Amino acid sequence: MVPAQSVRAVAKALAPLLPDRTPVIICAKGIERGTKKFMSDVIAETVPGAVPAILSGPSFAADVARGLPTAVTLAASDGKLAGELAQALGSATFRPYHSSDVRGVEIGGAAKNVLAIAAGVVAGRGLGASASAALTTRGFAELMRFGKAYGAKPETMMGLSGLGDLLLTCSSPQSRNFTFGVNLGRGQKPNAIHAGLAEGVFTAPVLLEMARERSVDMPVSSAVAALLAEKMSVDAAIESLLTRPLKAEA
Amino acid sequence: MVPAQSVRAVAKALAPLLPDRTPVIICAKGIERGTKKFMSDVIAETVPGAVPAILSGPSFAADVARGLPTAVTLAASDGKLAGELAQALGSATFRPYHSSDVRGVEIGGAAKNVLAIAAGVVAGRGLGASASAALTTRGFAELMRFGKAYGAKPETMMGLSGLGDLLLTCSSPQSRNFTFGVNLGRGQKPNAIHAGLAEGVFTAPVLLEMARERSVDMPVSSAVAALLAEKMSVDAAIESLLTRPLKAEA
User: Fold this and answer.
1) What is the 3-state secondary structure (H, E, C) of B80-144?
2) Buried-most residue among A3, A227, B53, B74 (CB within 10 A)?
3) Closest to A237 (Cα-Cα) out of B197, B17, B69, B91
């Protein structure tokens, strides 16, 4: 997998080799630092002749390779093309649902990595399955708010590339972001943990900046960003979430 | 915990002891067989002087008892009363979010038990974490559709008593419904497994009947009902979900 921060370089190298109007299916998840651009925008800039599409959803490579059932979202602005690509790539066990909401799919793919770090912290700190379910649910609520502010369809955020990938990433030690959070929750300093491909570490500050620009309330992601920046301890971050005023759910 | 099928009898016994206008907070989850009534309707019938409220959400008793952080939904038709009850019951670690959508809360609490059986089957059959996340996501989509057809607010279905409880129930061996599904997935016959308090076993046929009455498509719940009625094998049920035509996500 190409990390989000390397997509521009890889795309530049590929650009001269691609015939015009070639569909390019992006599998990287994240937001480019500095530019705050999503991957489809990076592709549009670096390979202007390409037709960007995006594939995202709950699919550990090992599960797909073993032929276990997997369902994902495949989006392209041209919904008809998305449907054709889904038919071409689908198999008896690999099921792409198609969509025209490219932005929604990339928002889900990027933001869930930040929330997965929070879920890892809850697990690493030993807060129990009920707390983890509550955190994932409140995290999903902020994903919905962020998506709405940036033009995503609610159905996409509730679908495989949004909720589906969030669930997988927030619950499995196979997820690099979750594991990073587990180590944080166990008391390791952010700088002492190898971030590796824990994309959420890079996404968190950019996501928060974008949330602030459109006044989106994201308490869980904010707590993650504060933890990563060592502005808050794990226990203070948990306390900050538990002492918010009790309020109506919606 | 009082199982849903016993709520009427318990409420009848309590009725003479309750002063008029006493808020009665229901913690049972399910639909009454035969009458197809939700718990708040059963209370309204048997204790007409009571004010029915409902508490539901991801909260294993063991987690609550240990003082681990827990967040749930507390609903009453009178939203102000719901807020007061939430304040009265809330503590530093037990956080009730209040709501006026009683019906939405009870739909989530009942339907998630059926979906948890499906998640258990996926785990028991060894289909992997990606398949489980996809199934939970598609299950959540049918929960949303059912809720909409029966007057629930989408925010409630996406909240702690809907999505939150679904996540907990679909992922933990502590859930009786999930465990029942695991045994099914491992090849045991439904009648050979002690249903005990696996409420979803009783809810499935009623839920499906109600879905049919309002033309709600619920493929995952239908597969569970077919498995329970021994009309389909586990592998045929999985096959039925994997061979649905590929389609748009929304």
Assistant:
1) HHHHHHHHHHCCCCEEEEEECCHHHHHHHHHHHHHHHHHHHHHHHCCCCHHHHHHHHHHHHHHHH
2) B74
3) B69
Percent of all residues in chain A with a pLDDT value above 70, rounded to a whole number: 99
Q: What percent of chain A has pLDDT over 90?
A: 79
- All residues of chain B having their beta carbon less than 8 Å from the beta carbon of residue A73 are 249
Q: How far is CA A136 from the centre of its chain?
A: 13
Rounded distance between C-alpha atoms, residue B106 and residue B27, angstroms: 10
Q: Whole-angstrom distance between the N-terminal and C-terminal Cα of chain A? A: 37
Q: What size, in residues, is chain B? A: 250
The label of the residue with tokens 């015009």 reads A20
Question: CA B166, CA B217: separation in Å to the nearest integer?
Answer: 18
Tell me what ipTM this predicted complex has. Answer: 0.93
Write phi, then psi, for B72 (nearest 5 degrees).
-135, 175
- Asked if B246 and A138 come within 8 Å (Cβ–Cβ), the reply is no
- CA–CA distance, B239 with B118 (Å, rounded to integer): 13
Q: Where are the beta strands (DSSP E) in chain B?
A: 23-26, 31-32, 37-38, 51-56, 70-76, 94-99
Does B129 contact A58 at a Cβ distance shorter than 8 Å? yes
Catalytic residue among A29, A112, A148, A247: A112
**What is the average pLDDT across B28-32?**
87
pLDDT of amino acid B3: 77
pLDDT tens readout for residues A216-230: 999 999 999 999 999
pLDDT digits (tens, 9 = 90+) for A112-167: 999 999 999 999 999 999 999 999 999 999 999 999 999 999 999 999 999 999 99
Residue at token pair 């952080």:
B69
**Residue that is written with structure tokens 């909720």 in the block:** A163
Angstrom distance (rounded) from CA B136 to CA B110 = 15
User: Does residue A112 have an active-site annotation?
Assistant: yes
Virtual torsion, Cα A222, A223, A229, A235, nearest 10 deg: 170
Place of tokens 């129930």: B169
Which residues of B fall within a CB distance of 8 Å from A138? 71
Please give the helix or strand (H or E) that residue B211 lies within, else none.
helix B199-213
- pTM of this structure: 0.93
